[in-house]
Amino acid sequence: EDQVTQSPEALRLQEGESSSLNCSYTVSGLRGLFWYRQDPGKGPEFLFTLYSAGEEKEKERLKATLTKKESFLHITAPKPEDSATYLCAVRDAGNMLTFGGGTRLMVKP
Amino acid sequence: DGGITQSPKYLFRKEGQNVTLSCEQNLNHDAMYWYRQDPGQGLRLIYYSQIVNDFQKGDIAEGYSVSREKKESFPLTVTSAQKNPTAFYLCASRPGVRTGANVLTFGAGSRLTVL
Question: Which regions of chain A are under pLDDT 50?
Answer without folding.
Answer: none
